[in-house]
C-alpha cells in the first residue's frame, strides 16, 4: 500500500507539472523525498494561482464597486457575469489544490496558503445556484439602497432616504410619534420585501457551506477564527461586560422616562425608536438630555465642524494626517481620485460606508455618503483604518491580505478613534474651544463614548446568535421575526414601538443581515480595540496602570511614532499567522481580554452605579408587554 500511495503521488505530480509547464526531469534530479519534491513544486504552483487570484479579485472588485456605487440593471448583470467567471476559475484552482498532500508540507507559509485555497466558499455551488445566490444578495441590497419614505410632517414628500434624511430625523427629533413613524416605515419598506429572498439566501448559503464540508454557514463563518471554542470565548466576554451594560441601560432608561414620561416604562425594556439610531445599536444621539453633568457646557463637535467650514474632504484629510503622524502610510493619489466620499445626486448607490481593496497592491478606496457630523468624523477614521491595514499587508501573498481575523480589521480604525474622540486630541487639533478639562467634562465625554461603545456590545453579539440558529435550522422560517425580538429583549433590553408579527421581517432593516456580512467581527472589535489601545498607549508613554495621572481614557497617541510602529508591525502580518500570534506581537497577550474596556470605562461605571443607587433605578428589565405573533391577524384578535 505504501508503494501504491507514493506511485499515485508521482502521477498527480506529473499531471500538475505538465499543467504549469515545469520540467519533470528537474524533479528527478531534485533527489528529495516525494513530499519534499511535491512541496517544491507546490511553491511554484502557488506563484501561478496567486497571480490568477489577484487578477480575478481585481476584476470582481471593479464590478462590485460599479454596482454598489451606481445601482443599475446593467451594472448588476455585469457584476453577476464577472462573479460567475471568477467562481469557475476558483473551482478549477481548488480542484488542483486538493490534489496536493499539503497537510504534510514543512514550510509554514506554503502550508497555510494551501489551507486557505482548500476552502472554496460559495464558488462550490453549481453555476446556476452561484448566480442565484449572488443575485439574491444583490436584490436585497438594492431594496435597501433604493428605499424611500414619506415625511411624517408632509405625507406628500416621499423621497426620504436612510442617509442622510432618516438618520438625521432619528438623531434630532424628540417627537415620539415621528420617531415611531420613521422606525416603522423603514421596516415596512425594506423588511417585508426581503423576507422571501432571505429564505432563498439561507438555503443557498447553507448548501455552499455543506459543499465545503461544514455543517452550515455558521460553522463556515466561525472557521476563520481558527479556535475550536471561539463561541464560548465570546460568550465569556459578554458575561464579563454585561454588568457594565446593565448600569448604562438603567441610567438611560431613567433619563428617557424623564424626557418622554410613560412612553418609557420604569422597569421594562427601552422602546427602541427613542434611542436616536435606526437600529438602537448606539445611543450617542440621546446624550443631549442624558449627560451626567447637564449644567456643564457641552461642546458640540458637529456644530464646531460646521463652524470651522469642514467639508467631507477636510474630514478625510484630517483622518489621513492622524495616521501619517504615527508613521503609518498616507493615502495613494488614486485613493483621492477614485473614492466616493459624498453622495452623488444623479444615482442610487449603497451608502453604507465601506473600504475597498482592489487586490492589485495599488488601488484602495472608500465609498461613503459623508455628512459633516461628529458621527461621520469618527466613521471616516474607522474606514481609513481599514485602508491602512490594506496598505500595510499589501506585499503579503494574496491569501494573507486580510485581517488576522475580521475583528482585527474592524478594530484598527476604532482604535485610532479612541484617541480622536479624547478631549485632549480634539483640543490639540482645534475642535474644542475650552482650554482645560475638569472632572465633570471628562466624565461627560466618557459617557458619550460609552453611549457608542458599551451600548453596542449586546447588539454586536446577538446579530449572529440570531443567524447561527437560522443557519443551523434551530430557528425555523416561521419564527424568524419573533426570535429576533426575543434576542433583542434578552440581551439588549429593548422593545419595538408596536407589536410585531411574522408577516414583518425586522432583521432585514439592518444592512449586514441582507448583505451577507458576518457581524460577530464588530463585537470582537469593540473588545480588542481597547486591548490594542492599552498596548499602544503604554508604548506612547501615555498610560500606566493604576496611575491616576495617566488614565487609559485620556490617552491620545497622535504624533507618537513608537505607538504607530508597534501597530504597523502587527498590521503588516495580515493573516499570515493565526490571530493569537498577531495579537501577541502588539499586546503580549494571546487571548481576547475585556479588562481594557472595563478599565477605560471604570470611572463611568463607578458614577453610574452611584447615580442609579441614589435615584432608586431598577437594574435590568422585566418582560416586554409588546408581543410577536404569527400574523397581524393574530395580533388583532388579541
From TrEMBL:
Family: Belongs to the peptidase M2 family.
Organism listed in the record: Exocentrus adspersus
Glycosylation sites: 70
InterPro entries documented for this protein: Peptidase_M2
Disulphide bond pairs: 150-158, 351-369, 537-555
UniProt-annotated binding residues for Zn(2+) 2: 382, 386, 410
Name the record gives this protein: Angiotensin-converting enzyme
Enzyme Commission no: 3.4.-.-
Record flagged with keyword Metal-binding: yes
